[in-house]
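Teaching note: in complex prediction, the entire set of molecules is handled at once rather than each chain in isolation. The prompt given to students was simply: 'Predict the structure of this complex.' The entities are:
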Amino acid sequence: MFEKALKGNKYYWMWLAFLGFFIAVGVVSYLRQYFFGLSLTGMTRDVSWGIYIAQFTFLVGVAAGGVMLVLPYYIHNFKAFGRITILGEFLAIAALLMCMMFIMADLGQPLRALNVILHPTPHSMLFWDMCVLWGYLILNALCGWVILTAERKQVAPPKWIYFFVYLSIPFAISIHTVTAMLYCGLPGRHFWLSAIIAPRFLASAFAAGPALIVVMALILKRVANFDAGKEAIDKMVTIITYAAITNMFFLGMEFFVGYYSDIPGHKHSLQYLFFGLEHHGHVYNNLVPFMWGFVILFLVGIGLITHPYTRRKNDLWLGIGCASIFIAFWLDKGIGFVLAGFLPTPVHEIVEYYPNINEIFVTAGVWATGFFILTVLYKVALGVEHEVEA
Amino acid sequence: MDTNRRNFLKVAGISTLAGLGGTTIVNRLVAGVDEAHAAAPAGSGVERKTSETIRYGLVIDIKKFHQDPSLGEKAVNACHQIHNVPKFPEKRDEIKWIWMTNFENAFVESPNLYQDEANQTHQLPILCNHCDNPPCVRVCPTKATYRYEDGIVGMDYHRCIGCRFCMAACPYGSRSFNWRDPQAYIENINRDYPARTRGVVEKCNFCVERVQAGLQPACVEAVGDSKALVFGNLKDPHSEIRQILKEKQTIQRNPSLGTIPSVFYIV
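The expected output is the structure of the full assembly:
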């Protein structure tokens, strides 16, 4: 089926070339980092994870978000999602590949990565994260491919594939739960040490993932003559609305626990993120603009996707609303959450993190690679749809 | 191929796979259970072997470091020299195994608006606590950091993949990472201890290589007879360290986290 990706109009090739440029920059930047070391990033012994791991965390959510299409379609027989579940499955594949690239980019000794398999360590959550991420990737590739092939041949998918489709649902939940467990099981990191982290991750994932799919579907409607259908889009927007509000509710609970109990450890990171943390006469606040950006974009987004006019009458406003939600939750989880967890340090110092330009290029390169893969996969999927229609 | 034959082959194939994979998994689980029985209560599921007779510990007398500030420098230099700890020009690359810090930084669980003068003006050494229940060992995905039977938490620099999960997990900030190749920044290389490559984590190893050869840790040796640092076996009721712990009141860093450090401070 891959031959479908080899035929496209000039905009298709220009888009791929545009992404290719960033991929090339990313590869060169990664090689610099590989040969010099992670000193080419903004990370230090105090803030020892940076934007790589933050992107990884966010993208696991995007991958898990695809289940919000699979579940209603296969469990509740919500027929309107029939045409677009493949978009969710292929988005999960692209997002998971980005996750793995970010992990590899973050490793100090990437060539030793196989040690995780050679010396399996069940008490490490990273071991389980590897298992569920690979499992979910394989499940999505398998289900997506088999069902698309069946559609192309215009036959019903083989029965055995449904076992794997149903299995992929708990796997989607598990990838983000285990990713949350990387953080919420660490003693002494108070911001992460919260039982709400996994639920909050899932809530923001079930908003951000579908939000990206809606944006994609609206773009495909314009550029690829593919209509996901009004009912499907409308249902997804409902899902995004509830998930996004749930995420904000959980965040609100974090604020209540921190500020009402008034226990410093529970407040510090929130204070640092949203208001700036004062320490020995200096206020550290380099993430404050991002976090207020997150709150404002959330409000803008939720307004646009709930108001009847912008939601149903105008694709552009709906697209902007969903994009706002996606970017808002990226600011929250793809920047704030990971970085703030390190502050204050275990010896109560504040060391702020600023990404290095090389690190930003690598990050952009991985995102571009992900969108390149996504474009190719969507091209294949839509090629099959169009072939069947014709 | 008729259906019966096909089904037979399917079943046979699956049972073989299950047999091959299944027994290994069962064996592993059973082995894990055995070790869990032998070990102390470990809620985190870390399998481990613990010596009944040896657990190394260190007592740090803060007052002695106040009285003679040069002791701290001696201990830090001796350690960093012997273990080829590099000195980088940029602070963000910094690697340290043992270093001097303020009381309020070492004991973040004991804030005090009206701290005594000595603790305000003087510093004390901090290092890896060689916890009895080490979070770093729990999170390491490759067992590159592990607990010896005698309680020392060690590092395998050749197995570490550099994921830095242990650095996020350590509630004491004891771990450092080789952000770049350290070779050029080691002042006088000690050929008896491995220098590290870039991309791996390192930390104080309680001088396991010296202790197992019957020597005292380098920092303890460096402070000489001052008794500012006393190293010994916590499981031997007649050891010097146990005598000190019996006589003097000591405190530990972040005790509420349940890591059970092996390093004690006399305030």
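Point out the following to students. Chain A is about 75% helix and 0% strand. Chain A has two domains: 1-184+356-390, 188-197+229-353.
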